Amino acid sequence: MYTSDGQLQIAVGDTPIYLLPAMCNRHGLITGATGTGKTVTLKTIAQDLSDAGVPVFLADVKGDVSGMAVAGEQSDKLATRLAEIGVAGLNFHASPVRFWDVYGEKGAPVRTTISEMGPVLLGRLLGLTEVQEGVLNIAFHVADDRGLLLLDLKDLRAMVGWCGEHADELSLSYGSVSKQSVGAIQRALLVLEDAGGEVFFGEPALDIMDWIGCDADAHGFVNILDATRLAQSPLLYSTFLLWMLSELYERLPEVGDLDKPRMVFFFDEAHMLFDDAPKALVQKVEQVVKLIRSKGVGVWFITQNPADIPEPVLAQLGNRVQHALRAYTPAEQRAVHAAAESFRANPAFDTEKTIGELATGEALVSFLDADGIPAVVQRARVIAPGCSMGAAPADDQTYLTQNSPFATKYGTPVDRESAYELLNAATIAAAKAQEEADAAAAQAKADAAAERERAKAEEKAAKEQAKAEAQAEKERARAEAQAAKEAQKEAERQAREAQRAAEKAAAQQKKEEERRQHQLESIGVSVARTAATSITRGILGSIKRSIF
Question: What is the mean pLDDT of the chain?
Fold first, then answer.
């Protein structure tokens, strides 16, 4: 309950217990078993700080912190409780809540760029080795030297891949880039991408100064990060927290001790920050908790057991609220003992015993006084906040999200030309040139093959032509030989015919001659006979005449 004199009355014990705004940047711790009232205490402190003009940030893991956007209501039970602790009245009111969500579902989107994250934090977050961190650092330097923006994961993956492809030419100017390291980085980035990193890295990037400010009534803005889904991706949750703490530390100037903090951060279910958290996150939390006080920022952790917080961090938490712890096992008993030992003892009661006897809404409280000294622990009952103790209705949260000025500022993602597009364009150009070269080579190969086929066809045709001509010549020669043979045969036939004719003629002639000879002989004989006859007749006649 914010009082008129600027103090924050958080609880009532034997006397009212106040949290001094000037001591809120000395950090704090709210612990206790489930159902003992931690979230109500968180809301009370956060709303009182908002009423005092201090902006706050709350990581809402369970979804019940959203009730700060809704005014609380009086009930008989609450009235009885307020009467018992001597609080006359409670100012029921809502706080000026702004909802944020890395996924952009239940609040304005929260984004940052790869460049803002930087190679050192990113390398540690991803658990890279020293050599792999060196290669990642080279990728950032090469991108910077070549004017390539690293905005989202695809930019970084493209840049790392390019460095791997051009390792030889980079080695002389930047150092060795091994393919094994490039492969390890790409695998780590793929894991981060699968965890949701593609929605966290990009533009428009969140200006963390948008979290710092007050409304028209001078009430500090209550920035609630809906982490109900985010908490299911520990790697992405760690990435967000690592960036946020680093950004705060780098952006905020040194201001020394102020009358009230510039901002206070509350991390509910804080054990999730440290259970299996990357070493880089734990180291950054330790660093921020130790040094960010001088920048006017307070950090409060809410968890079940103080043992959930690493010792170096726990030692920096000056303001403490301890709700009931149940000790059923030896380990739990040791935890209760350790929690009791962390308080400045009150002789009026046994702190360790009392921790186990506290009722819901009761707590052991020890805040820092004006000199920064922890007050003697008191058993007290926490004053209820003026906001709703439950979660805000979904419609109210949706309305506040849609009507937030940051829904317009950050609602639409922007993917401007950066490393991925430029390298991809170069890759496309190289691929196109290679494709053209391959096409030209293929065409040349095809032309050569066609030329070979043409030459082969011509050679085949020539062979076929030669063969045909040879065959034709052979056929012609055969025909000529056949013709010659036929002619010879014909000549021989004709010669035979001529010979036969000659022989026949000769025979005929001979026969004719023989006939003529015979005729001649016949004529001769006839003549002779005639002559003989004539002679004979003459002789006979003569004889006859002689006789007669």
Answer: 88
CA distance 243 to 245: 6
Q: Which residues pair with 299 in a beta bridge?
A: 265
The pair phi, psi for residue 12, each rounded to 5°, is -130, 120
Q: Give the model confidence (pLDDT) of 360-375 as tens digits.
A: 999 999 999 999 999 9
**pLDDT above 90: percentage of residues in the chain:** 51
Distance CA 65, CA 390 (A): 7
Omega within 30 of 0 (cis) for the link into 204: yes
User: Can you tell me whether residue 469 is helix, strand or coil?
Assistant: helix
Rg (CA), the chain: 60
Distances (CA, A) of 406 to 111, 160, 203: 12, 33, 13
Is the CB of residue 331 less than 8 Å from the CB of residue 39? no
Tokens of 44: 């009370």
| Measured distance between the N- and C-terminal CA atoms of the chain, rounded to whole angstroms | 224
Task: Find where tokens 């209705």 sit.
Answer: 393
Residues 382-398 have a mean pLDDT of 93
Confidence of residue 111 (pLDDT cuts 50, 70, 90): very high
Can you give the pLDDT at residue 323?
Answer: 96
Residues 272-285 as b or e (16 or more Cβ within 10 Å = b): bbbeebbebbbebb
Strands of 269-352 (E only): list them: 297-303, 319-322
* Gap between the Cα atoms of 407 and 86, Å rounded: 43
pLDDT at 188: 94
Q: How many CB atoms lie within 10 A of CB 312?
A: 14
| Distances 41 to 13, 27, 299, 323, 385 between C-alpha atoms, Å | 15, 15, 15, 9, 8
CA atoms of 95 and 58, how far apart (whole Å):
13
| Locus of tokens 């290669």 | 135
Whole-number pLDDT of residue 456: 86
Q: Is the pLDDT of residue 484 over 90?
A: no
Question: Is the sign of the CA dihedral 246, 252, 254, 257 positive or negative?
Answer: negative
